[in-house]
Amino acid sequence: MPRAASVCLVRGCPRRTSSAGRCVEHAPSERPWGRKSPRNLQRDSAWERRVRPRALVRDRFACVACGAREHLEVDHIKPIAKGGTWTLDNAQTLCKTCHFTKTQRDRRTP
User: What string of DSSP letters covers 23-40?
Assistant: First the structure.
């Protein structure tokens, strides 16, 4: 059974919905906040294919901070937002706990 037409979620708009519960005028843009641009998708896939595996091998599949061998993540030593690069020399293997701690420290420092 088809779904019944509904009214736009935006307050006071009487139009019928077209996408995401909103009318054409109020529908989300082509690139909502959660999606990545094609450029970032390409860069992230290169990170996943090339840099991440090499960093894990180089660091012997262990956290460089505490030596843990479970829940490993590859982190940027210098964050991209602060001028870091997407290269192997700016990558390090950290466990989830150490990565969280480092991220919090990076956010506090200018």
Answer: -TTTSPPSS-TTSPPHHH
Query: 68 φ, ψ to 5°?
Result: -60, 150
Q: What's the whole-number mean pLDDT along residues 48-68? A: 93
For 55-92, the DSSP string reads HHHHTTTS-TTT---SSEEEEESS-GGGT--SSGGGEE
The dotted CATH code for 38-108 is 3.40.1800
What are 23's two structure tokens? 């009318």
Q: Cβ distance 75 to 99 under 8 Å?
A: yes
Q: At residue 34, does pLDDT exceed 60?
A: no
Distance CA 64, CA 92 (A): 7
pTM recorded for the entire structure: 0.62
Average pLDDT along the chain: 82
59 close to 98: Cβ distance less than 8 angstroms? no
Q: Is the pLDDT of residue 90 over 90?
A: yes
Three-state secondary structure call for residue 16: strand
